[in-house]
Design goal:
The structure is a single chain. By secondary structure, the protein is an alpha+beta fold. The chain folds into 3 domains: 136 residues, Immunoglobulin-like (Sandwich), CATH 2.60.40; 48 residues; 62 residues, no CATH class. It is 37% helix and 31% strand. The strands form 3 sheets. Strands 1, 3, 5, 6, 7, 10 and 11 form a 7-stranded mixed beta sheet that branches. Strands 2-4-9-8 form a 4-stranded antiparallel beta sheet, with no helix packed on it. Strand 8 and strand 9 form a beta hairpin. It is rod-shaped. The termini are far apart.
Length: 298
Amino acid sequence: MRLLALTAAVLLARAPAPEVCGALNVTVSPGPVVDYLEGENATLLCHVSQKRRKDSLLAVRWFFARPDAQEVLMVKMTKLRMVQYYGNFSRSAYRQRLRLLEQRRGTLYTLSVLTLRPADQGHYVCKVQEISKHRNKWTAWSNGSSATEMRVISLKASEDSSFEKKKETWAFFEDLYVYAVLVCCVGILSVLLFTLTIIWQSLFSKRKSRVRHYLVKCPQNSSGETVTSVTSLAPLQPKKGKRRKEKADVPPAVPAKAPIAATFHKPKLLKPQRKVALQGTWNLHSVCGVNAQWRAES
């Protein structure tokens, strides 16, 4: 029996050690780049998944690296959930501003940085290691890491940027105001020109409508023909004067038509008829001349 126990112990001692190069799935959020204002509180989340063993424990470390600098260990949560601070971050000023908590066991860890400063700008790396006991020894089974970049915007820079944005917006609105004023002026001028043209057309049409045409009947000549002439009055004469002139310039009454013989057996009467026709045309010219003279006087 003793020999069997010794051989079993030797075989176990010679057995190969378990593999340590497994990989955990570790992600940090928000990321990969996050912006905060100076004085705000930042919270970084470290998610862990794909553990190899259910009874294993996790050791979480947060590293900080400024631009063009090496990584520095800030804070660590051991497998027994004890928080330890390292380097300059172990001072009371930093310890009050750094908080590492386990939100969900074995899956979610949070790092809070209070009252951010410009010096807190840089890369934050979360490294997780899976640990469990093997032959009464703590052995690392797997590990994983993830990083994010935090940018801290100073209040002066934010104020300057906001002031510049306000300037740009005000300049845009000023230009828009100038364009609106120009458009309004052009519209007002066009409306004024339109009204002036309408008024001018209405006045011109009224002047045209005031001109009236009258037909004046000339007295009949001996041949029985009647002659008419067209007269027009001035547009600016009063109505009373027009009425008086119309009454005063009424042509004389047309005399009764002389009887004409039924038969014309004498050829000698042709000459008097020509004279009568000539006399009628002369009377027509005289009457039209009188009318023209009356129009000129009026």
